[in-house]
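Exercise 3.2. Students should predict the tertiary structure of the chain below and write it as structure tokens, then compare their answer with the key that follows.

Predict this chain's 3D structure.
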Amino acid sequence: MPTPTMKAIRLHEHGGPEVLRHEDVPLPEPGPGEVLVRVHAVGVNPPDWYLRDGLADLPPETRPVFSLPVIPGTDVSGVVEAVAADVDGFAVGDEVFGLLRFPSFDGGAYAEYVAAPASDLALKPPGIDHVHAAGAPMAGLTAWQFLIEVGHDHPSPFQTARHRPTALGSGTTVLVNGAAGGVGHLALQLAKGKGARVVAVASGAHESFLRELGADEFIDYTKERPEDLVHDVDLVLDTVGGPHSRRFLRTLKRGGALFPVFFGAFDEEETARLGVTVSGTQVRSNGTQLAQLGRLLDTGAVRVAVDSTFPLADARAAHERAARGHLQGKIVLTVA
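Answer key:
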């Protein structure tokens, strides 16, 4: 009997978007603790192009082990097709979404079917479609685990201490840098939901979008430097991060915190002198937290913005769109 196959995107080598191949691969079978999901939509995330590039931008000690060929992708929304005997809580026909096996690169989501750990999944909110659900998991859980609740005991690869979110409320001010992107626009809404005042930093084209989401103040970084305009902030969530993140230290009040999503180098003497904290976490799959986020998505208290969609076969075009930057929300692949 021939082996059942499906269409998927695979990497046989590292490089630019052109190395993404749309081809026939064996249909996966769910193992213990897993369900088989027929994929309807896949969220596109930075780790997808880090993997495609060979993880060249990550410090060697933080690079997960993987082998080629590999199917990229971690964010998925679809319908349960089969359930392992030891799985409770999901049944054939359930609509589900999830962040699969992160921070490993074994998600395998760029495909028509995926074997997914049941613990990484939640029931898809009935109030949103698969495209918007697929855009939520990694970006939403990153925002959640930085701002609301970590949900795991693993420290970030860049710090020894476990990350501790800042308590948010009506008396707190949060600055979100990169506010129009996947993590940024969801973090803005979560902070607003906690009653915080939010300063959104992005390019001018995104101002009306971010004000609609609830931003109290907007700064166009192409015209003005936020560190020159904003002071006495309780928390900065820098979704861009990297070597320029330390400029936001001067926006903080004493006792404030800077959370760079992509960690950079900081001077401990400087942060001690300023009386501020720099902290980060590594987002991890968490079906329980995703279910909580799903309830907010279902009521419309939080919404996922979709920058653009592409068919699975056009994953190359999706990665080319990502490379151009200035995203407003998420890029999503659709699966027929």
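Discussion points: Residues 5-140+284-334 form a domain with the Quinone Oxidoreductase; Chain A, domain 1 fold (CATH 3.90.180.10). The first strand starts at residue 5 and ends at 11.
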